[in-house]
Design a protein that fits this description.
Elements lengths: L1 E7 L5 H10 L4 E3 H8 L5 H10 L12 H9 L2 H28 L4 E5 L15 E5 L2 H12 L3 H9 L4 H7 L2 E4 L4 H15 L5 H6 L1 H24 L1
Parallel strand pairs: 1-3, 1-4, 2-3, 4-5
Helix pairs in contact: 2-5, 3-5, 6-7
Length: 232
């Protein structure tokens, strides 16, 4: 199995690239969806976060008010780190469950869409790593337009993440999303060819088909071995 890492920064266009993979029938494990699930009322993640941040972050129905929690952690690095520490084990196990489901289905290539791929050390699971990059000013303008926030709030959010230039230096593949959507799609088509190329032998043995082939080889070896011994 080939596990492709996909990351970027807020308003860099990572979600657009993720959706392009989905539209080409490449399964995507979305860490943001997993994170939402681990914050649902009654879950272990929910209980830890409410215990740490208090019931002021809850909506009337008892669910976590995600925008309110976001405002708290984006403006306070200490609280942001606390939230990451509280949720990291739940998010990691949730991602692993999704990978296992896709492995059992026999998927040969999957994409891990993880904003904090490097920060969470999940880059060690993935190859190749794709970073969706955009210049700082374009990123700020897109974020302000998307969320209707001022420049100070936008900078707080972008500064809360690893710098895109640093992420770019760690990437195997970089998508420059400073241009138009058509420019992005053109780059994606080239990358799709790279991502869907035949599996290496290592990737094959890590797939369900590879594991099945290995099991069959072992069984055949045992049977042949018994037959040889029986003739001695």
């Amino acid at each position: 199995m080939r596990i492709v890492g996909l990351t970027g920064g807020i308003s860099s266009g990572k979600s657009t690239v993720s959706n392009l993979f989905k539209s080409h029938d490449i399964p995507v494990v979305d860490a943001d969806i997993v994170a939402r699930d681990v914050l649902k009322k009654g879950t272990g993640g929910y209980k830890r976060v409410v215990a740490a941040f208090g019931e002021d972050i809850l909506q009337a129905n008892g669910e976590v008010d995600r925008p309110k929690l976001g405002q708290i952690v984006f403006s306070d690095p200490g609280k942001r780190q606390l939230l990451n520490r509280l949720l990291a084990p739940f998010i990691s196990s949730g991602i692993l469950r999704e990978i296992l489901k896709l492995w059992l289905k026999g998927c040969k290539v999957i994409v891990l869409d993880i904003p904090l791929l490097f920060e969470a050390k999940m880059d060690t699971w993935t190859k190749p790593i794709i970073v969706v990059w955009v210049d700082t000013e374009t990123q700020l303008q897109r974020l302000m337009a998307r969320d209707g926030i001022n420049e100070e709030d936008a900078r707080n959010r972008t500064n809360a993440q690893m710098a895109l230039d640093l992420k770019r230096s760690k990437a195997d593949i970089v998508i420059d999303n400073s241009g138009t959507l058509e420019d992005l799609k053109e780059q994606f088509q080239k990358i799709l060819v790279q991502v869907t190329r035949p599996l290496t032998w290592t990737e094959f043995w890590l797939s369900r088909q590879g594991a099945f082939s290995a099991l069959v080889s072992i069984i055949i070896g045992v049977v042949v071995g018994k037959n040889v011994v029986g003739k001695l």
